[in-house]
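Slide 14.
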Amino acid sequence: VFSKLAKSQYPNVSIDERTDIRKRQVLNILMSDSQRSYCLALRDLEDETATTENLASWVITELYDLVNARYIGYGIF
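Slide 15: predicted structure.
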């Protein structure tokens, strides 16, 4: 998955809040290439409301880890 995304010339990052199959509010970070979307991270919001202020740090950290290839063993970028 990560090698496919690394080769994508124009990747797209989306943040999506939804209810999962267990009726929990979750936040997804999705990354898409020209063919598919992949879930990069998932956060259970529990009683937290998804706002820019309280979730920005988490989103930035997850994307920073991806860009800097900190997903050990995947050899991205």
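Speaker note: The first strand starts at residue 12 and ends at 19.
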